[in-house]
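Module 6 notes. Inverse folding takes a fixed backbone as the condition and produces residue identities as the prediction. Think of it as a translation problem where the source language is geometry and the target language is the twenty amino acids. Below is one complete input and output pair. Work through it position by position during the lab.
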């Protein structure tokens, strides 16, 4: 049984989630090195975890050699692509935090090089593991809702002004709102219903007026099935996150999942008894209890990183190729923006 000897590039906020996942899957994963350009932060992480620390990822790859076989990339967004390529060419399997990149062509390039090097390339799209989404996916598979007529995503989150007092305010490093906070939930939409056509979109700066991009996005969609759809993504809610919800309306009923991060079943009603009974059986099988990640003043996506690592160890991780449509979705929304 292969032991994953992990080197993490990036010791920022999300580092703790990956460390937790490694420790909870200690039979298959062990942390063997850390890397960060911030020497103070690096020294803390290296000392606390009793592993060598490196300020340069290429140095880590070179010096660790065969002592490391798996790289987790948890750096600011624009660094993901070059660090992924370097890691693959050094013969390591990789896991990349969202977004893989701002261009879907680069995600395809990572996948191509992974195949060329006979390595595995995984993406962090852990919201797919929410119990609520497993429930909805199963209900759709069993056709409980009939023909889907409408799908809407609403993500009304709060981000304090200081959230953008970092690399996130630099559009070349962080990207824009959908890449930084919306991508997980846009991924869920395309994962459940297919990649939609974007009919129109518009962006607004309602709170974070000191940054070079929007804090609010709206879009009108048409899905491959013919269903209509809409999205609203904002980080201008006050004083906390209001909701992150998906409403699905079909010919035979409706489902709404919500809470702060798609972590609650808020409504479900069906036209026929068989579907209602089937849904209730599914609900009884699946735990509907999650607490979104807390980052102090605000919440984030649900803490499924341990499940993500477990799935990778079982050979069922979410590949980089599976992240391509999420990036295509964002590209299309921004391309259709009304000026």
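Target side of the pair, the amino acids:
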């Amino acid at each position: 049984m292969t032991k994953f000897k992990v080197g993490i590039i990036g010791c920022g906020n999300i580092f703790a989630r990956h460390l937790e996942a490694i420790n909870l899957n200690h039979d298959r994963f062990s942390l063997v090195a850390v890397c960060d350009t911030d020497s103070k932060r690096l020294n803390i992480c290296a000392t606390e975890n009793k592993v060598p620390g490196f300020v340069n990822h290429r140095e880590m790859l070179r010096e660790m050699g065969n002592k490391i076989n798996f790289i987790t990339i948890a750096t600011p967004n624009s660094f993901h692509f070059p660090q992924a390529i370097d890691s693959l060419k050094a013969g390591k399997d990789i896991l990349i935090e969202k977004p893989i990149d701002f261009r879907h062509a680069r995600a395809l390039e990572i996948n191509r090089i992974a195949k060329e090097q006979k390595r595995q390339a995984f993406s962090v799209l852990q919201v797919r593991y929410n119990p609520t989404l497993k429930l909805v996916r199963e209900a759709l598979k069993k056709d409980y809702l009939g023909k889907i007529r409408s799908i809407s995503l609403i993500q009304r989150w709060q981000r304090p002004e200081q959230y953008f007092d970092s690399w996130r305010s630099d559009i070349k490093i962080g990207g824009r709102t959908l890449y930084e906070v919306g991508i997980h939930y846009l991924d869920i939409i395309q994962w459940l219903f297919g990649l939609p056509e974007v009919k129109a979109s518009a962006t607004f700066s309602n709170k974070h007026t000191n940054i070079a991009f929007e804090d609010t996005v709206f879009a009108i969609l048409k899905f491959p099935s013919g269903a209509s759809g809409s999205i609203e993504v904002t980080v201008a809610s006050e004083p906390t996150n209001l909701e992150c919800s998906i409403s699905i309306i079909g010919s035979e009923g409706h489902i709404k999942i919500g809470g702060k991060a798609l972590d609650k079943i808020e409504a479900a009603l069906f036209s026929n008894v068989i579907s209602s009974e089937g849904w209730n059986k599914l609900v009884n099988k699946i735990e509907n209890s999650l607490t979104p990640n807390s980052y102090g003043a605000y919440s984030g996506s649900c803490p499924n990183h341990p499940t993500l690592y477990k799935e990778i160890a079982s050979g069922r991780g979410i590949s980089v190729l599976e992240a391509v449509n999420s990036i295509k979705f964002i590209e299309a929304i921004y391309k259709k923006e009304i000026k």
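Reference fact for the lab report: The chain is about 35% helix and 25% strand.
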